[in-house]
Design brief:
The complex is a heterodimer. By secondary structure, chain A is an alpha/beta fold. Chain A has a domain of 176 residues: Rossmann fold, CATH 3.40.50. Chain A contains eight helices and ten strands. The two termini of chain A are 30 Å apart. Chain B is α+β, with helices and mostly antiparallel strands. In chain B, strands 4-5-10-7-9-8 form a six-stranded mixed beta barrel. In chain B, strands 2-3 form a two-stranded antiparallel sheet. In chain B, β2 and β3 form a beta hairpin. Chain B starts with a helix and ends with a helix. Classes of the chains: A alpha/beta, B alpha+beta. The interface between A and B is medium-sized, with 33 and 31 residues. Chain B: Keywords: Cell membrane, Membrane, Transmembrane, Transmembrane helix. Chain B: It comes from Natronorubrum thiooxidans. Chain B: Pfam families: FtsX, MacB_PCD.
Chain lengths: 266, 411
Amino acid sequence: MVPPSSPIPLVSDDDPAGVDFESPTAPSPVVRAANVTKIYTRGSDPGRLGTLLGRPDAPRVRALENASITISTGEIVGLAGPSGSGKSTLLHLLAGLELPTKGTVTFQETDLETLSTRERTRLRLEHVGIVFQRFHLVESLSARANVALPLVELGVGKRDRRKRATALLERVGLGDRVGHRPGELSGGEQQRVAIARALVTDPTLVIADEPTGELDTETGQRILNEFERIADDRAVVLASHDRPTLAISDRIVRLKDGMIRSDGNK
Amino acid sequence: MDLKRWLARLRAAGGITVSQLRHHRLRLGLAIIGVGLAVLAMTLLAGVGVGVLETGEQQFGAADRDLWVTAGETRLTSAGGGGFENSLTNSRSVATEMESHESVRSAVPLAFETVYVGTNGDGEFQTFIGTGVPTSGSVVQVTAGNELSGDPHYANGSYDGERTNEVLIDEETARALDVEVGDTIHVGGSLAVARNTEMTVVGISPTFERMLGAPTVVMPLSELHQVTGTTQTEPATFITITLEDGADIDTVQTSLAKDHPEYEIRSNQEQLEAVLQEQVLILAAGGTLVVLALGAGIALTHTLLTLVIFQQRAAFGALTAQGISSSVLILSVIGQGLVIGILGGIVGTALTLPAVDLLNRLAVAVVGFDGLVQMSPAILASALAIAVVIGTAAAALAGWRLSRTPPLENL
């Protein structure tokens, strides 16, 4: 589902310039990064006065270097690599959480650089589901309220919100825990709530940063099964250095020192 | 459609607000106590400031005088070994002259001098404020024992009448000297005089202690002049004038000022203002305290609310990353600030009344100063309003700053 108020210029089947989302033979690209480089500045620059006083420039860290990747519908893409290799940075760029220092990230044919912060927030609401390693649920809200919250922004009525949130929680096996708060749920259950929250807006792209990093092996496997189930009609990108997580990926992109070293099917 | 969406956002923000407050009860309780204490600090310090002015006004009102005559400043001076600068000399004759003025019922000189007081002639002496009052027309409240019996020693200026050797003291002085009604004490303007002048405590009077905010020994005016060696000049701190019933104060004041240009003639309010102006350092300190209390209250409330909101930054970061708009989050934190501000304000104002009572009891017990802190509905309402406004504004500001921070920085 794509809400009607989307800022993204949606393409349809009869749009010759667009991409055919429904084509079974050619998976449509959801997001594409072209030659992206991301440089972080640690601390603040000295400014004019600081320069006069001899304060050195703030150190810069090149987190990602000239990386290119295309993610299509129906794909599960695993980002692999050691800590500091640039996995999370690439994930954040693909989700529109950050903008690249160089290069372009195109989401459904829209260059994210051309969008304002508010428009990018709206884009994430409508098209991107995010699952964090540490769940980041609102502690004071029930599982159902956590899942339903993004729907408020989309103008979905209260009854529909409850219905959809409950259905998603049932889908991830938490039908009997809808009224529980995060503190009353196990780590695996919280992560499943986070997955339900990421899916509630029916996004075209789901990203997950170390989604099983805080879970035991058995619970982690159940979470991975969920990702396999949801990948049918959307793109899923998982950043992990965990072997079982990467095992469910259709394609593994390996990064090292901020550069993509390999990109291919398993 | 937009309105409907905004209403849904408002409801969602309200839901988050209520759930956050209910879920983090300890944090909520501590924040409310913090804001309550900030409010309490503001009300009490403002109450002290008001107390100083109100007490002054009440004392001037209770003195039942219409006009005050001085011959310059009445502050403490180091001249002559220390004491009040009693620049109104020949006070008896000046008072008599003024009493003969039309519409003036009585004109009474009052003198304050620093005196040495001890319980026996060979022991230690302490300094107190000696107050000299002519027994006719003076208003001295006596809470225990008897009033002064009169001022026969003056004997129309000859100072050869019998001395009463009577004094009134206040409770603080009684405590300091460990004496009670019926005991004898030694009083004098110098140690030599004090050793040889024995006087009897005939009663307890809080009148001048309240007026001056310091322990006092009250005696007939002529005997104060005698023990301080000032019978020749008969100095007074001021002359108080009571008018006939129905007399117009302004008219008499103008007329007296015309006849006696060498003296300052002031109404109750003018005299209070003049006294306060002479105490500019105390006033400045009081004003600074009030400003500091206000600033500290605002800063504390702001810091507390900012902390409360910033503790939620990870959840807000995750929600922003998920696409929840900043308006929902800001509305939610404004709601929290409003609730904490209101509840903290109510707690602070509720604590104020017993705290004022306690402080006033303490002040009476320790320094004998009654009405140190005075409260008014305006002070309480202002403090409550500050708590609510600052609480809400601080939360809104913190929420706005959170919303401006890239979501990843909050995670």
